[in-house]
Structure prediction request, 229 residues.
Amino acid sequence: GDSVTQMEGPVTLSEEAFLTINCTYTATGYPSLFWYVQYPGEGLQLLLKATKADDKGSNKGFEATYRKETTSFHLEKGSVQVSDSAVYFCALSGRSGGYQKVTFGTGTKLQVIP
Amino acid sequence: GAVVSQHPSWVICKSGTSVKIECRSLDFQATTMFWYRQFPKQSLMLMATSNEGSKATYEQGVEKDKFLINHASLTLSTLTVTSAHPEDSSFYICSARGGSGTEAFFGQGTRLTVV
Prediction:
């Protein structure tokens, strides 16, 4: 079945540092890929998405490129802020058993210190 | 983006009782809804997928008689935790997807504590 693997956290960075959170996936067909963010005490919010190979999703300074050849969708940001501290989930949307299904990675906690 | 409302946001119940959690899509018709359970170490586990008007499809290892899911309309799905026990204490999250889109929108989650 579909699966998503993302780097374990927690990741601790100083403000203005460069961020990379790795994400790789296994899926049949051509899934859509997502990054979700969960701020402390809140539900999940969609951060960015890409629906086909070589698409780049971007939002709030975060970017991720859909790489079919490496089955990856790594999240990057050039300069993190304290307000970016949250848990980040990589996810894919594909069909399984006739239904559209979203599969999540285990999440990576990011802590940005001033 | 579209709005999914989950209610209640937190609930405390006694062991042996049942708890119902509602998930509503407020401004779109959700043909498919998903229920997840989030464990303390951040992982999000899909419990079941429900399509409006049909029985839910449960993931392996999820007890369908314990976690009752109803998706009676295009804007409402409910998860009922029956005969709750302390080990059922967790954060439950629903998401909803419209008919032709690939993006799922999430509710705020429900923190269930069974005492």
